[in-house]
Amino acid sequence: MNSLLTPAVAGLSAGGAYAILGVCAIFTYRLVAVVNFTGAAIGAAGTFVMVALTEHGMPLFPAVIIGILAGALVGVMIGGVMTKWFSGASATTKAAVTAALLVGIIALGLRLTGGQRPHLFPDLVSGSAFRFAGVEVTWGSLLTVTLAVGLTIASDLFLARTRTGLQMRALSERPMAAELIGIRVRVLALAVWGIMGAVTAFAMMIIAPLRSPDFMSLSLLVVPALAAALIGAFRSFRAALLGGVLIGIVEGMVSALEFGARFRGVVPFLVILIVLLWSQRGARWDAAR
Amino acid sequence: MPHASTRAALSTAISIAVVAALIYFLLPKYWVYIITPVFIVGVTLQSLGLVTGRTGMISLAQMSFAGVGAWVTGYLNVAQFPGGLIVWMIIGGLAAVPVGIAIGLPALRLRGINLAIVTLGFAAAFDSVLGTITYPGQTAFIKVAQPAWFKGDYGYFTLVVLVYITIAVALEYISRSRLGASWLAVRHSERAAAALGVSVPKAKLSAFALSAFIAGVSGGLLAGYLGTLVADNFNMMQSLALFAVATMAGAHLTQGAIIGGVLITLFPELLRRLNLPQDVGSVFFALGAVQALSTGETIGETWARLFRKVVPRRKGADLTGAAKGLAPATKHATGIALEVKDVTVRYGNVVALDDVNLTVPAGKVVGLIGPNGAGKSTMVDAITGFFPSYKGSVLLNGTALEGKSATARALLGIRRTWQTTRIAAELTVGEYIRLAAGPISHTELTAVLDWIGCPGPDTPIASVDAGTRRLLDVAGVVAARPPVILLDEPAAGQSYAEAIRLGARIAEIPEKFGSAVLLIEHDMDLVRRACSSIAVFDFGRVIASGPPQLVLALPVVQKAYMGIEPEGAVA
């Protein structure tokens, strides 16, 4: 029993992080209508700013704050590109833009962070929170999952209950119409990108120590993130939350298997495949008329 | 259009051969060695251009397909499989096909974004698996053997160029065939493609399968070039960079693929010589791709445009004169061609069509009129199969069509046009008609174009004005000679004189082509001229039907149109 439970719980913190990234991906899609391939890379940028600062002797707390702000800034910069040149573009074009930007960001990030050179990632939270059925549950996993749940609830409430949320929904559906009724489209869109950047940066800081911590590996966490978002059909935050956590747990269990260690990276792909095959049974057409 | 495609294929083959010969005879061995990968990458880029450029699906795993081909080639080499590298890389390409189809399947129903996510996921998964297995023969220092005829730097360069030319020429032919036109049509609008009888899943899967094959072959070529490979040759970054370069250079054009190959291969070399870090290249590619996406023009297209300024494209002769060579009208079943029985369509709580009954007799033009929002276009969507479900039944020559897809209905013989034209601008007039009509003789093709007043078959659609494109819509459906044609406001956006002319043409359709027509139109002069009977819709119901003069004079019809009770009998 424990032989499966331990790795499952070990996958929890990664799962929480995937859930956060997945919720952020849906948030970006629902509010600014972009399937964002750079999401994790934005977070990675913030994380590495934090690491660079701590390596130069800055205390952890201000370094984390500055790192989060840096994530927000990178987010706003990418958002600036998207809103300036691609606000009227099709969803496919926008996705292509972020995919292309991902290459550039990764290349730039690898250059600035010295490629595969190992960095010292401080544990933001460490140690065991409690034991559950003989298995250690770490503060890290507790924090990511809590954060993911909080973010999910907050996103749901924000979109459903607030005036800004309503405006943002209008913005993503018909940017031009939203602009014409006096919504400050650009400012709102940039705010979304900034917030997403900040949140992902923080999530990445928590899980970075658990990963092979180079810029590229962190940026490519966008794969499980998008898998989680797909489980939520790019609509439901709650489904994405569950999906993200589930992917983390399955990954943890697979890597504990003797033959499975090398196939951990395959899990998100299989999830994507299954979800898409399931969700697309009915015929759908592109935009009418 | 066999002449045009042969001409294009020849000019492609000759121009590449000339460039390759110059390299072969003028450059030293070192440079030939450096330039060889330009064409290898060019092959991979062509594979990406096929899915992304032509079919409009984003693939971020192209290097993984190449990896499949490379690994298979490696295994066959170690196993000393007979046939040598050329056979191995073809088998490698074939091995990549099922992988490509398996990945394309889940992305069939939705547009490009899902495929982007699936392929990125696949690239990540492939990375993690490939990272754990070494290249076949690597530990025993067995290199992939180059074919006896193409050994050495010069020899292998020749092989690579030959493969490149073969694939470029094949793609040139395919892109001008109906299959190639169907890819562009799917990219432009899936609905419109389905309405032309194109199977959207088939078009997408064929593009994906062929693309995976070409990528697999390029992997085999790379294996022969380097002798042994490492997983990093095929990692995600490579796939992403390839995507960026394809987007920037326009890999669906052969010159674009070569420009892309030059960028990927020689740019790092240039940076190295300038003592700049080589990974700056990727940043440059990313910016270039974003730039190309924002302007909507790739480097390859810019070159083609500038080239056409210098050497203007031969314009197809304009057609004038009476329709000659039009085959006699097709004999379809007589009686009721199209029958709509008790059809109800709801959007949520809104009833768009409420128990509608309508018949279109064979060989007649029936008008369908009514104010905006009356449900006319909804009716066309229901008849042509663009709703997943509706109540009631649609019968074509007495056979119920329920459960048949839009593509199947189009193939059975219900064709439609759209309120706004949805013709892919990359096609030529002739290619579009061939896509719409299927096998059709050149005489028949020009006769149809001539009949409706469209420019000649070699004219690019991009140079045709919007009004003429509407005519082309009609030309496409009549050329298919189906039993039933649905025209959704064909005269919208036409001038009065053009509309009158179009009306006369529509009235001729049954006599010339044998098809029955359901015509939706607001232009009453056109309706009177073309239709033998009309039905009037309001709020999703048929409120009147019968001969045009009688129906248009009915007070209830005038109220529906004008919103007021008419004071006198105005026709």
What can you see in these coordinates?
The complex is a heterodimer of chains A (289) and B (571). Chain A is mainly alpha-helical and 289 residues long. Helices cover 72% and strands 3% of the residues of chain A. Chain B has 571 residues and is an alpha/beta fold. Chain B is built from 22 helices and 10 strands. The mean pLDDT of chain B is 86. The interface between A and B is large, with 51 and 61 residues.
One letter per element, helices H and strands E, the order of chain A comes to: HHHHEEHHHHHHHH
Order of the strands making up the biggest sheet of chain B: 6-7-8-3-9-10
Major β-sheet strand ordering of chain A: 1-2
Number of helices in the DSSP assignment of chain A: 12
Helix segment tally of chain B: 22
User: Portion of residues in helices of chain B?
Assistant: 55-70%
Summed up, the domain count of chain A is 1
Tally of DSSP β-strands of chain A: 2
Radius of gyration of chain A: 19 Å
The largest pleated sheet of chain A is described as: 2 strands, antiparallel
Measured between the Cα atoms of the first and last residue of chain A, the distance is 57 Å
Largest sheet geometry of chain B = 6 strands, mixed
- What proportion strand of chain B? 5-15%
Gross morphology of chain B: elongated
CATH topology of chain A: ABC transporter involved in vitamin B12 uptake, BtuC
* Name of the top-level CATH class of chain A: Mainly Alpha
* Integer tally of domains of chain B: 2
Which quaternary structure do these chains form? heterodimer
